[in-house]
Each structure stands twice: as structure tokens, then as C-alpha cells.
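For concreteness, we quote verbatim a single protein encoded this way:
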Amino acid sequence: MSQNYDSFRELYEQHWALNSGDSPEKETSAFWDEKATDFAAKAHSSEARAEAEAFLNRFAWSQNETVLDVAAGPGTFSIPLSRLVKRITATDFSTGMLDQLLRFAVAESIHNLDLIRGRWLEIDAPGVFDTVLCLNSLGVISTDANHQPKLAEALKKLRDACSRRLIVLIPHADSPLDETMRQILGLEEVCSERRRIAILYFAMVDCGMLPNLEIISRPFRWKFASREEACETLLRKAGVATACCCMPRFADYLATRLIKDSDGRYNLVYNVSQALFTWNRQI
């Protein structure tokens, strides 16, 4: 039993920020600084804002509540949530992302936001909050500046920062490709994303928490400069070589799903399975 326990525990000490084909650069602030403007435009579009609000409405909020949003990005959730709670503290290691968050906060006359720049594992604990959010960002915050995975350390710091509840959202609980794409490429049914969800549940239990786990369906948005970029990106995410024999069929199918917008870019929107972990501290 002990040997199996130790072997399973080793599995969650991996690079959660990196998917197939990703560069370690994804774990750096410079990577996200470069993407901040486009990321913010997408996150604060009318469609994305409505989706963020719908997600937040899953939970009960209080006007006396304090919230910590870890790796908040451009304020995807912090901006709409600020109207429902007393105060939000948002952290991120990307100056570009926090600049975008502040820009939208100013534009929308929001004054109950505090910003902290820094890597989650390196900043001083900003205090204890009623609710701690880690939404779509666990991979990035669980790696240190030397690209070493520190999932348990990141989880314990999240746990210790909340007085009432911790909410963690994992953007992919299944393959990022839809069912038809997986069939064309002949991918195995049990993908690494599914295994990660099981491992994360074990990791949270191992860190003293017993979370609720719910698999939910939410819209996921891709935006590409060309059809070729779309095809290459999705194949890389799936860990499939672009020279595979299924490439023509895959490209033909993808072309039917892409929608060209007024800027000449190609959009791909469909629902994906996401994993929602909620831990309520027993008081």
C-alpha cells in the first residue's frame, strides 16, 4: 500500500501548466505579458463577460465578503465579482495582465480592488480571505521560478489563505478536442487531462482538504490568425504530428467549425468539460 501511495503521489509533481507541445516559456511572466492585450480583449468581450457572470452565479456571495483571486489575469472574474463582494485582492506575476485588469477597473469605476504582482509561490501571504479563487490558473501558480513543479506547496498556500472556502477551476477535464476530432485522429479515450483530475483530487486530499468535485460544461474559445494556425495548434495540443496521415481529414473537418470574424481571424467555440473543485473549511 505504501509503495503504491508514494508512486501515485509522485504523479502530481509534474508541470501542470504545460500541455503537449507547450514550451517552458509558458511558465514565465514574459509569455503572459505578450498575450495580455489580446487575452483581455477576449476575456472582456460581451460573450465572455456573460459566461464569467454565469459561472460566478453558481455560488452565493455576500456584500461583506473578502475574496482573493490568485493569478487573476486581466480580471476575467475579478471585475464582475467586484460588484458582489466587499473587496477583492488580485494577484498575478504578469505586469501586463495586471495593467489590463487595472485598465478595465478604471473604465468601469471599480474601487474595491487591490493588486499584488508576483509569483504565487514567492509572494508573502496577503492575509486570510473568506473565499480564495484559483480559476484556470493552477498550472501556472504551481511552478516556481526555476520551472520546478510545486503543486502541493501551491495548494497548501491556497488552503491557508481562505477562512471559508476555496474554489479551483480546471479548464480541461477532458481532451481540448471535440469528439469528432478525437475520432479522426484515433486518440485514446482516456486522455491525460482526465487523469490529471483524479490526481488533483488526490493531491487536495493529501494536503488536508476533502473537496467537492463537479464536472461542468462551459464554452471554450479559440482564436487563430489562419486556418493553418488553427490546425497546427490543435494537433500540437493533442500531441499529434502535423505530418500524420489523418491531417487532410482533420483540416477539412476543422474548416467547417471555424468562423471568420470582421478582423479576419478565425474563431472556434464549443463546450468543453471543466473540473470544479470546491472545498469548504469546517468551522
